[in-house]
Amino acid sequence: MERKLAGAHLTINLGALQENYRLLADKAAPAECAASVKADGYGLGIERVGPALYAAGCRRFFVALPLEGIALRRLLPEVKIHILAGLLHETEAVYLEHRLDPVLNSLDDIRRWAAFAKETGKTLPALLHLDTGITRLGLLEAEIRALAKEPGLLDHLEIEFLMSHLSCADMPEHPLNRQQLDKLKYFRGLLPAPLDKAPLSLANSSGVFLGSDYHLDMVRPGIALFGGNPEPGRPNPMAEVVHLQGRILQVQDVDSEIGVGYGATFRTEKSSRIATVSVGYADGYFRALGNKAECAVNDVKVPVIGRVSMDMITIDVSRVAKEDCQPGGFVDLIGGAVPLDDVAAHAGTIPYEILTALGNRYYREYLEGAG
To answer: What residues are labeled active site?
Structure first.
């Protein structure tokens, strides 16, 4: 009954998610393959995404914030969980209680985590983030050199990996990719022993496809796990995880020169059949998709016409057989003949934003994988 009451149906294929993890892990081997599952598993529900990836073999996870880490720890008591935002102030005891390993992004992070470790009499794990060119989080060269002059600062810390983050991995020919790889190795050499030989991590989803030089000791894919194309401009090697279908509310036969939607930004040029579909920007179907995006009815692509409303879109189904497009039926909005990356391109954004914006009014169905 719940499905019948919802305006749209979101199917999340956990088997495809697991297939994607295995593909990435095989490609990166012998490097370890972690998983980035921040933002509630990229909007797909960490309570299902986390255990599915664990069943596929993942034992190391990255999230943005400690609250995300706590939620994941409740689901997966034995895995490694790293907090990309670093060590939030006055939260050290929470990290220890839930076994959350901070990614140390600054000298301040390092000093506070080291002081807490000394106070507790423990050796505490962490990752050390070196900024090689994205200029976002991480230690710059001057801070790395300063750290090298205080080797005792790290006495109570177990630095598992030195990591950085690629800025242009989705552009394989961009010179910054190689520059960042070389700089990460150079920065490691500035650090005191044994950190000068510490394991390295650099590759995100697209970085996995830059070649084995970039795999180093650990890769950290995110969007590719969820079906986003890590190689823009090439066929997508990843399995489809997300399939979003909107319910048809009404179908109308209209004359030419009829305005459609708010502002009448679309006018029919000939007699047309217009279907109204129960999804809108309140559901994360971006307003920018109006007069740009395509949907599909029985694999026949049809245009979104007029503006996207809060709860509805309108599509031109003149090319679709009447029996295939009736009230109560469904239209493919993401997935099938409408790839996720194409939807993002029509919205002028990236697949990450499309997934993390998915609303909570959908009826969600999870297709279980084999593990």
So the answer is: 38, 262
